[in-house]
Design brief:
40% helix; 8 strands; alpha/beta; 2 domains; 11 helices; Rossmann fold
């Protein structure tokens, strides 16, 4: 593994590379709230399979700098395009997990000629209100916090953390400023229409126990992307690259071959 830094649009970007030589490159975009560190084990396995794997810390995550102003999904797509250009990746496989999958779908729809293959792993492509869901509860609290802030004795911060823990979006409770607004921008946008434009060979990998991006999303994305291939990993949740590392690597390498 080698770790490097590069300047993209005046932001210092940290990234890791695994493997090397004149082999096919795989660019991995991580999910929200983590960075390249969470993909080391999976990247090592893919590199052992004969691929050069590149995992950047996207802006605002890991060791990369935070954007100066709140971003939306399109800003991350533009950043990814510039990152690819800086590294001179002409033909590569693009892989995205969760939020990274949302970015990957919009990138692939906008840049169809540069991507040889697309892998969507528990990708947050579909953003829609799910009545009664934990996510809807968190979104309501975020929009009505003024009401709760009038509660005496500093109860609001405690209440907020409890609700976000229940909702499964407790990362938001720890965000401030630019990244807090960026989070709200990201979760407000669906990439399903972009998915319908994709003609690139696509693998969709999902865990049947995923509670953050439910498995019905996988079937809807599979239907949206023409001739896409879907693989379900039994017993896996949202972080299948951490819990089912070997199985995921096998499914990805089988698709790439």
């Amino acid at each position: 593994m080698e770790e490097k830094k590069v300047i993209i649009n005046q932001l210092s970007i940290n990234y890791k590379t695994f493997g090397g030589g004149n082999v096919k490159s795989v660019l991995i975009l991580h999910g929200w709230g983590v960075g390249s560190d969470s993909w080391v084990e999976e990247a090592v396995l893919l590199a052992q399979g004969g691929y050069k794997v590149i995992v950047p810390d996207m802006p605002g995550f890991g060791k990369s700098e935070v954007p100066k102003e709140p971003w939306g999904v399109d800003d991350y797509v533009d950043w990814a395009r510039d990152f690819v250009g800086e590294l001179k990746l002409e033909r590569f496989v693009l892989m995205g997990h969760s939020f990274g999958g949302q970015v990957a779908v919009k990138f692939c729809a906008a840049n169809p000629d540069g991507v040889d293959g697309l892998v969507l792993c528990a990708a947050a492509v579909i953003r829609k209100p799910r009545l009664g869901s934990r996510q809807l509860l968190a979104k309501y609290l975020a929009k009505t916090k003024v009401i709760f802030q009038n509660i005496p004795f500093g109860i609001y911060p405690v209440l907020r953390k409890i609700v976000y823990r229940i909702s499964g979006t407790r990362d938001y409770s720890q965000l401030q400023g630019v990244m807090a607004q960026t989070f709200l921008n990201v979760v407000a946008e669906s990439a399903l229409d972009s998915a319908k434009q994709i003609k690139t060979p696509t693998l969709i990998v999902w865990g049947d126990k995923d509670r953050e991006t439910p498995i019905e999303d996988a079937y809807e994305i599979n239907k949206a992307i023409t001739d896409s291939r879907m693989e379900i990993i039994a017993g896996a949740g949202h972080k299948l690259h951490r819990t089912h590392t070997q199985i995921l690597a096998e499914k990805i390498t089988d698709f790439l071959k």
